[in-house]
Amino acid sequence: MALQCWAGDGSQVRQGYAEVTHGPQVAPPKARGLLCSPPSLLLFMSWLLKVIETGKLGVFLPKCDAGCCFKSHSGGGGDPFSPQNCFNKQQLLTAIRQLQQVLKGQEARFAEGIRNMKSRLAALHNSVNRVGPDAPPVSCPALNAPPDGIKFGSKYLVDHEVHFTCNPGFRLVGPSSVVCLPNGTWTGEQPHCRDISECSSQPCQNGGTCVEGVTQYKCVCPPGRTGSRCQHQAQTAAPDGSVAGDPAFSRAPRCAQVERTQHCSCEAGFHLSGSAAGDSVCQDVNECELYGQEGRPRLCMHTCINTPGSYRCACPSGYRTLADGKSCEDVDECVSPQLVCPQGTMCINTGGGFQCVSPECPEGSGNVSYVKTSPFQCERNPCPMDSRPCRHLPKTISFHYLSLPSNLKTPITLFRMATASAPGRPGPNSLRFGIVGGNSRGHFVMQRSDRQTGELILVQTLEGPQTLEVDVDMSEYLDRSFQANHVSKVTIFVSPYDF
């Protein structure tokens, strides 16, 4: 009969065999602290553990013959309580004592492990206490906004960026962005703003005269033109065919004799001109000219048309006049039931019009290729393991289109680029944002607004109509090691109007 043996701590150490010459039981030998049991008794111990686990002792109390208290499963696959291999009381007590010793050994080993863990934690605690105080985080000297300029960024820790731009009429001399290095210095000198002659670029249109101001230029417009660059027709336009002598714009006054004195008056929208009674005439009040003067509120959002005794407002092509008769609202041509863009392109509504766009992924080169995953996004196919240049190309490229009015007040945030927070991301310096391309970098800065978000900020006023492009980048770093970058291509359509 095979004997299974354990050390006092419960670990199995050897297996032996004994010949059974008579009787159904074999006394378990004891040598060098070993506990041995025949397989049938081991099976009973497993049943005993099941009893302890379930708390249902009655399930395992079969009807036994005289002198037999429990029966063991013989291993043949039959009834576990068959009449063969009954255990007597002494065998059962021996099995229970063995199980108690095994549990006691396991308990001792567990207690010893706890003591060792406590000892090691105490040693580690003492070692940490002996270490000096944490060094303060490395930071760079504080930076100020240059005179006649603006500074973006208020954190001066390692890897943080600060951006600079100048007010209208000034040009930035020096770097537009600096980064705090681990040695506590910036990557460049603080820039300054230099006055420039904006009139040298001849910004005034339609014969306007440019006059230099303290902080910006001003256009003096010829008759019939208005706007910051004389780009609009003046709001004093009259209907076609109307002239100052048009009878519709002149009326006879209403006069009455009161106590030998003649009193004359005019209808609303007309004023009395002339002094002598015979020379008096009611002349139309040109509200468009009156309220078009400097400092007065505008009667119309766009064009004011003088009419006899009143006025009316008109909106440019691509806009509709609202119910108040003064305001203009852009017409969204892209929602028109008529197809406005060729098949394969997408319609982007702009101020007073629309644009048809068809974003395309970069062409493949070598082992680098991109696939279009949505109408406005491309993703790079997996790079070969040994291709370092491939991994430094954008992992994703997205396309975004914005429509802006002219003369938008700055600074203003136009676009946000963010990533979702993920477990294991090492902190606020794991992402870096910047402007990496486009045709008008001087109009924008890119700065981090929080741990996971970068903002594209317009810092220079834009005059329309014009189209600008700017490429912004978000790079991911893990322990200052480059992981991937994502590029957003932003196209901005500037309307010719300031509404």
Write structural notes for this entry.
- The chain is built from four helices and 35 strands.
- A hairpin with a 2-residue loop joins strand 3 and strand 4.
- The model is unreliable at 1-38, 58-69, 71-83 and 235-244 (pLDDT under 50).
- The chain is 13% helix and 34% strand.
- The protein has helices at 39-54, 89-130, 287-291, 388-391, and strands at residues 2-6, 12-17, 30-31, 34-37, 70-71, 86-87, 149-152, 161-166, 170-173, 177-179, 192-195, 209-211, 218-220, 225-226, 232-233, 250-251, 254-258, 261-265, 270-273, 281-284, 303-307, 310-314, 319-321, 328-330, 346-350, 353-357, 370-374, 377-380, 396-404, 412-418, 431-438, 444-450, 453-458, 466-478, 481-494.
- The strands form 13 sheets. The chain has a six-stranded mixed β-sheet with strand order 27-28-29-35-34-31, with no helix packed on it.
- It is elongated, with a radius of gyration of 46 Å.
- It has four domains: 2-109, no CATH class; 149-183, no CATH class; 235-330, Laminin (Ribbon), CATH 2.10.25; 346-494, Immunoglobulin-like.
- It is mostly beta strands.
- Helix 1 packs across helix 2 (89-130).
Number of discrete domains: 4
Q: What separation lies between the terminal Cα atoms?
A: 100 Å
Low-confidence stretches: 1-38, 58-69, 71-83, 235-244
* Backbone shape: elongated
Q: Going by CATH, what is the homologous superfamily of the largest domain?
A: Cadherins
> Could you name the CATH class of the largest domain?
Mainly Beta
Radius of gyration: 46 Å
Tally of DSSP β-strands: 35
| Count of runs of 4 or more consecutive helical residues | 4
Structural class: mainly beta
Helix content: 10-25%
Strand order of the largest sheet: 27-28-29-35-34-31
Strand content: 25-35%
Q: Can you tell me the CATH topology of the largest domain?
A: Immunoglobulin-like
The CATH architecture name of the largest domain reads Sandwich
Q: Biggest β-sheet, characterized?
A: 6 strands, mixed
Average per-residue pLDDT, rounded, comes to 77
